[in-house]
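JOB MANIFEST
job_type = single_chain_structure
chain_count = 1
residues = 120
[input]
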Amino acid sequence: MRLALHPQALAPRIENFGEWRGHLLARVRQQIAASGDAGLEDLLSELLSSLSGDDRPRRTNRCSHPAIVVPLRLRDGATRLSFISTITVFGTPVDVTLSELAIETFFPADAATSDFLRAK
């Protein structure tokens, strides 16, 4: 989250930064609501403080439903890549050390991204 949203990290290369930022912040808020984790609350505050005034999300009174899939669209010069992600959460692990483990996996969202990655 820090790497994706910080203006001196990945954020300037994210073409759909506003949409992606909203998606990530909503995910953190959902995790806070589900867990009450103070560490996540600190992370949310940190993420919001790293955004400039123009980048800060604006709250509206409209009913907003989260998208099922929000693509991550990256651009580096002429190279444009698009990814979708899935998150696997270990809900009832046998090993207690896995109880809060979540793994996010990114997949190519289009043929051009898939071709680019295969060529590398």
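[summary]
The longest strand covers residues 79-89.
The chain is about 35% helix and 20% strand.
exit_status = 0
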